[in-house]
Amino acid sequence: MEVEKGTKMGFEETELRLGLPGNGGGGTEGGESAKKRGFSATVDLKLNLSSKEGGDDTNHEKTQTENNLLATDPAKPPAKAQVVGWPPVRSFRKNMLAVQKSSTDQGSAEKVPGGNATFVKVSMVGAPYLRKVDLKNYKSYHELSGALGELLSSFTIGNCGSHGTKDFLNESRLIDLLNGTDYVPTYEDKDGDWMLVGDVPWDMFVESCKRLRIMKGTEATGLAPRAMEKCKNRSFK
Amino acid sequence: MNYFPDEVLEHIFDFVTSQRDRNSVSQVCKPWYKIESSSRPKVFVGNCYAISPQRVIERFPGLKSITLKGKPHFADFNLVPQDWGGFVYPWIEAFAKKSVGLEEIKLKRMIISDDCLELISRSFPNFKSLVLVSCEGFTTDGLAAIASNCRFLRELDLQENDVEDHRGHWLSCFPDTCTSLVSLNFACLKGEVNLAALERLIARSPNLRSLRLNNAVPLDILQNILIRAPHLVDLGVGSYVNDPDSETYNKLVMAIQNCMSVKSLSGFLEVAPHCLSAFHLICPNLTSLNLSYASGIHGTELIKLIRHCMKLQRLWILDCIGDGGLEVVASTCKDLQEIRVFPSDPYIGHAAVTEAGLVALSVGCPKLHSILYFCQQMTNAALITVAKNRPNFTRFRLCILDPTRPDAVTNQPLDEGFGAIVQSCKGLRRLSMTGLLTDQVFLYIGMHAKQLEMLSIAFAGNTDKGMQYVLNGCKKLRKLEIRDCPFGNEALLMDVGKYETMRSLWMSSCEVTLEGCKSLAKKMPRLNVEIINENDLMDVGADDRQKVEKMFLYRTLAGPRKDAPGFVWTL
């Protein structure tokens, strides 16, 4: 009886429950457990892992899981689960260190995640799945269009012409292609508006772009007339 | 003392400098109130929305120096939307209108526009000092206005601000007649600066004692600067990328060795790690060293440098120094009073120091009283040891990167460890805690932390009792900030009068509901209870049982503020 009680207490103590340690479940802990959204639950939500409800895992296990998630284990890519405002380091400092790191690292630099997402989704009409690009990898629209062309070449639609999708963001091709079934690169900015790619300076674009969408000309009818006009006057830098 | 003429009293009050003491003086009797208020030169306003600028000017007509703080502390960590508030323009406008003889402005976490900087530069002919900490909303054009128009400028100190950089022209705006600079800090600017203008400025500033450069200043210019300003006391090196075999480097070494009055060193925003030995000669003079932005310096180089810093009182460093490095700090820096250990890679979530480093510091540094420590893990045993060794802590901020991590050895909550800290450190004024923490730690805090003024809590506690222990027990509490804790209306409403004795309360991702907040606002008209809901504009018909995501309340004599954006609802 004693032993049983002892082990049960031990288990409870290590459980990530909300009772006071050693208190064996007095009070309204059950209700409290459900209410508290601890750090682990917040991380779980972000990573779509099993929910914390009822606190099944032992505390130790939970810590292990979190450590696995958050440690720089070269065998596993670090999980980029970011709870807002954690760790409590001033954004100025975080940004400064991130910039320093990316300028010293060679290949897989840790880019600045957070509010100005540098990884943006690229969707294309008719494509079965989306892709992602890191805008910080490019220094100009020209580079981006090259990369997008390669990325989406697997989705080549026959009527893009002999050069394939590689050239579809090329300025002069774009003008030629902007007739009915052809493609217009657009992006969603910080305010949620859909804009034509290429209007603003590159740096400003990187700061404000949230996602990219390669629209069909017919889809972009609201944009297309302007786009054609802009294409005529502008050069992708 | 009532028999003394006013001028004598005023002269005596001149020796009373701290705001707290002056507040006490002004409460002795009416005549003292009048004299003190009319002669007070420096005013500190901890919350710019607690009082209107007009009232401040009315009470303190002799005002020369103003310090204002805007956004709540958690704004530093992106928990407060950018346009929440903290605009300084109304204050400057009011001061300008009343022709206040302002000489000094210090702002923290406020929004200041270029127009505002321009207004400052034109409205106060004796303006001498501008210190901006964690501010935003301005560009280098605003700085150009300050440089152009403030003829007696002594200090321009920009710390960790978010400045839109329109490139170096502002430095050329200091007129040739400007020779009064004592302190210039532009380390936080990201862009190019006009190097020739910088050199000329320094050459004509014989009183320059503090200079912090950004990383756009290359080595040869640094060398020129050091030769022209050998009396510098505080130096912030921007870029330190060099080739140890070059002549430039050798010249630099000579220049550094000339700067024997440098007591404070910082920067190294860009650094080639193998050339730090040039600084070893001035290290023994240093009392303050900030290498927390020098991510290019490896642990071993750091340790080599530290071994020469025997007089250090203040050290800000990255965790790549490691526990071993902290042991070197402990054995070398016997005068150390304040240390901050920051995570080198805040995104990865792994820190390179543990409880061992903390214990080493507590053993080796008898004068240590202020610490900010980001670490990988902690134990109760370590905290208890630290508490025993160092009862003189006044500021104790511990951040375990995994905020709900228990004792790394016993898997227990860290209640006992922090309990020991508050029990032993009777002068503790500021505390922030992380780790697995239950209501018990708050019981200890309420019982023992009698001098506590600021408490930061995250992911801690079990029930409303936790918060209640703190509100009940900490008589001197001024600022309480809580995130992701299970504290609800019962705790919030337990003692509503308490909030008028405090500057502010922040609660986010807790259990407080709209109903609780409304009830509080109703009972306490002299509090602004703000609900911040950045996702939608406030739905006035919202269900009262809804939990409030972010609540910020503060005492105020100015009523609900008129500049609140749409997503802020003052109840």
Describe the structure.
The complex is a heterodimer of chains A (237) and B (571). Chain A has a domain at 119-159 and 169-216: Phosphatidylinositol 3-kinase Catalytic Subunit, Chain A, domain 1 (Ubiquitin-like (UB roll)). Chain A has 237 residues and is of the alpha+beta class. Helices cover 38% and strands 12% of the residues of chain A. Chain A has a five-stranded mixed β-sheet. The N and C termini of chain A lie far apart (79 Å). In chain A, a hairpin with a 6-residue loop joins strand 1 and strand 2 (131-134). Chain B is α/β, with parallel strands linked by helices and 571 residues long. Among the domains of chain B are: 1-40, Monooxygenase, CATH 1.20.1280; 42-208, Alpha-Beta Horseshoe (Leucine-rich repeat, LRR (right-handed beta-alpha superhelix)), CATH 3.80.10.10. Chain B has a 21-stranded mixed β-sheet, covered by helices on one side. A two-stranded parallel ribbon of chain B has the order 5-7. The longest helix of chain B has 12 residues, at 247-258. Chain B is globular. At the A-B interface, helix 2, helix 3, helix 4 and helix 5 of A face loops of B.
CATH architect. name of the domain at 42-208 in chain B = Alpha-Beta Horseshoe
The main sheet of chain A orders its strands as 2-1-5-3-4
Number of strands of chain B: 23
CATH class of the domain at 42-208 in chain B: Alpha Beta
First-to-last CA distance of chain A? 79 Å
